[in-house]
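[stage:ingest] chain + small molecule (beta-D-fucofuranose)
[stage:ingest] validated
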Amino acid sequence: MSMNRRTLTASLAAATLAGLLPATVLAQKKLVLGFAQVGAESEWRTANTESIKSAAKDAGIDLKFSDAQQKQENQIKAIRSYIAQKVDVIAFSPVVESGWETVLREAKAAKIPVVLTDRAVNTKDDTLYVTFMGSDFVEEGRKAGRWLVDKMKDQKGDVNIVELQGTVGSAPAIDRKKGFEEIVKADPKFKIIRSQTGDFTRAKGKEVMEAFLKAEGKKINVLFAHNDDMAIGAIQAIEEAGLKPAKDITIISIDGVKGAFEAMIAGKLNVSVECSPLLGPQLMSAVKDIKAGKSLPKRIVTVEGIFPMEVAAKELPSRKY
Ligand code: GYE
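[stage:predict] done
[stage:export] tokens:
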């Protein structure tokens, strides 16, 4: 604490003792939030980080932020350091679903409330966190599937689909796959002929799509990518293979980031299912509510839409990420 603040605090304390100020003035210490982010793997993640940082600033919350570079061990380290620092609340976006029980129990033992944002953990003990706020990824997968079923309703022969999965073991990869399969399996003409992870990045999306094209060539009718970045990487691979994205291969992805809208406007991506990264303001109000002793619902679901290429130009100016 600087000399000035110390002097100020001392005079405020004196004023309080003298009955000149209410004691609450002294109690207004900034809340400290420790946030363990997944990484910086995608446009979505960058927008999510930005949302959290700016919302913390606006809410007057002292944010301690760490980037785990998509590694669970780094996230666990960060959470342990927040426990050691005795922050008021810990929030994190679990890179994968499993393996969190030990560290969550440590936070609980230290009486530090935990908020899950964006991705879920699979634990049976839901006393290990206060609330989980984020999208319904199964529903996003279903939306992608329903769009495809409708688009191909008059198609007679097989529809061969390749799938670029998100990070192995992550909630969005598991759930988007599940929701999509649930819808397309209703008609046997839909065949998922290849499915592999592209780790939610452009570079990996491109690399894996190159391998798909090498193996299957013109047999591929549809690409379902679990996020926009992998789809954008794959578009490059498709063009380099001399094919036309969104025409020779129908492309569906998820997130609805600006890059996807630009690709749709350029006629290279057919549709993007929205997944909002703007969780910052909601997280900050949850932090304040928790500290004020209010109870929160266990699950706070983000409301989202779907954007086909036909509406992209009209929608882009109002997109916030
Ligand atoms: O779809 C992807 C990001 O967890 C919803 O993570 C998030 C996903 C998002 O890397 O682009």
